[in-house]
C-alpha cells in the first residue's frame, strides 16, 4: 500500500506521525503540524482509502496498523510519536500493541474505546467522495463488535500515552474513554470540551496539551 504523505520539518528530527479519522485525510493536521515542525519531523499520511492514497479491497484496524508499519520502515524511522484522531487513534493503539518498541509515545484524540459502541451507518453522501465509502461499514462493524481481547491488549500497552477526550459534545461515551485510559498503565486522561474534532475546534489548546505531554515524556 503506497500512501500519499505530507511532511513538515527536518528528517533529522524525531519523528511524529499524525493519523487522521475516518473520511478525513492528512491535510486535517496542517495547523497542528506547523506548530511542531521546528523540532519534529512530522509525517501525515492519507490512510488507505482516503484522500490521495489508493482505495483498497479491504479495510480493518489491523490493516491500518500494518500500513503504518510500512510507512515507518519507508521513512527509516525506528521510533515515532503517534498522534491519532478517532479511527487514527485506534490504528495507533493497535500498532502499539503489535510493535511497542517502535512507539516512543502516543496521543489518542477521541479514539473509540474497546466496547460495543452501537454506531449507525449514516446514509451515503451524494456525489463524489474524497474517501472510499466501502470503508465506513467495515470500520463501524469492527467498532460495534470489538474482539473480546481488545481490553486485555490495551492493558498491555506500557507506552506513555495521552488520552484526549472531547467532553459532553462528543458522540463517544466519555466514561468509556476514561475507562480506556485507566486500562493503560502509562496513560493520562485530559478532557478538552470541544466535541469530537478537538484538534480542529480547539487547535491551540490541543497543541499546548500535546507539547506539555511530550516534554514530560522526554525528561
From TrEMBL:
GO molecular function: catalytic activity
Superkingdom assignment: Bacteria
Gene3D superfamilies named among the record's database cross-references: alpha/beta hydrolase (3.40.50.1820)
Domain Thioesterase TesA-like, chain residue ranges per copy: 17-214
UniProt protein name: Pimeloyl-ACP methyl ester carboxylesterase
